[in-house]
Design a protein that fits this description.
Helices cover 39% and strands 20% of the residues. The protein has 287 residues and is α/β, with parallel strands linked by helices. The chain folds into two domains: 189 residues, Periplasmic binding protein-like II (D-Maltodextrin-Binding Protein, domain 2); 86 residues, D-Maltodextrin-Binding Protein, domain 2 (3-Layer(aba) Sandwich). The strands form two sheets. Strands 1, 2, 3, 4, 5 and 11 form a six-stranded mixed beta sheet that branches. Strands 8-7-9-6-10 form a five-stranded mixed beta sheet. Helix 1 packs across helix 8 and helix 4 packs across helix 6. The longest helix has 20 residues. The protein starts with a strand and ends with a helix. 42% of the residues are buried. Pathway: Quinol/quinone metabolism; menaquinone biosynthesis.
């Protein structure tokens, strides 16, 4: 059996989308999957090193790792009218060079934030520490991501939604690309396609059995989100559109990569279709 090391974040959406496979709800078909849960910026840094066979990554990172990883169509998270939030203390007015805590240099929200607020003084923290840094006064503001957007201290208010920044930069109504998965190019193509298919099946099965899977995850203390918030969170970031990217999501990714190139973040403007696994390969292989 071929061992495939899968890295994902410990956030509810990634856990939910992966664990249908870990629980044996999807056949392994000749693969032995091992998983590891790490915060998203650590995953981004590891992807820059080509560390894992399959890894969750921020979409904004992808052009930097395109030679090492192909993009998978599944396990994706997009914001549709929502997303990360720039928060501050109530009744605080932010200066142009305000100090802000972000969740990591290569996250999508960090890229969009830097474009929108070029004079801000940035410090990078684990996303679980950002709210506390704002409350303590260590920073003037912070961008909340993952489940922290669902609830935060009542003394904090939203200064701006990153969704609004995205809409202004994209110049059209498109879903906000946040995170996806990459697979190492060193894995033979036929095996990579099978891994993508198995992961896609896992996301689809998870979506069909949310209550049972959520119960099993809670019993094993794998989730940080409370029961009453879990359904809301999964509907945001692990929904039906997470199973396989559609044309609108692909268009949004192309726009994100174009914005990054226009602001000199990437060395080349890329088109997402050129970096997906070629589904036609298996048909050609059998013909």
């Amino acid at each position: 059996m071929r061992k495939i090391h899968v890295a994902h974040s410990p956030d509810a959406d990634d856990i939910f989308m992966y664990y249908a496979m870990a629980f044996g709800w999807v056949g392994n078909e000749g693969f032995r999957f091992e998983n590891e849960a790490l915060d998203i910026e650590t995953l981004n840094q590891k992807a820059l090193q080509g560390f894992y066979d399959v890894s969750a990554i921020s979409f904004a990172l992808y052009p930097h790792v395109r030679s090492e990883y192909a993009l998978l169509r599944t396990g994706v998270s997009f914001g549709e009218g929502y997303g990360p939030k720039l928060i501050k203390k109530r009744d605080t007015k932010l200066k142009r060079n305000f100090k802000v805590a972000l969740s990591g240099r290569y996250t999508t929200n960090a890229m969009l934030f830097r474009i929108a607020y070029p004079e801000a003084r940035i410090t990078y923290k684990n996303f679980l520490e950002i709210e506390g840094a704002v409350l303590s006064g260590e920073v003037d503001a912070g961008v909340l991501i993952h489940e922290s957007i669902l609830r935060f201290d009542e003394s904090l208010v939203v200064e701006r939604e990153i969704w609004e920044v995205w809409q202004e930069l994209a110049k059209e109504s498109l879903p906000l690309p946040l995170g996806g998965m990459g697979i190492r190019r060193s894995i033979p193509l036929h095996a990579a396609l099978k891994v993508e298919d198995l992961l896609m099946q896992a996301v689809a099965v998870a979506r069909k059995n949310p209550k049972r899977l959520s119960q099993m995850l809670h019993e094993r203390e794998l989730l940080r989100v409370k029961d009453e918030e879990l359904e809301q969170y999964l509907n945001l970031y692990a929904n039906e559109r997470s199973i396989s990217m559609d044309e609108e999501q692909l268009k949004a990714l192309d726009r994100l990569f174009a914005i990054g190139y226009e602001h000199q973040i990437y060395d080349e403007r890329i088109k997402v279709e050129d970096f997906l696994l070629p589904k036609e390969y298996e048909e050609l292989r059998r013909s």
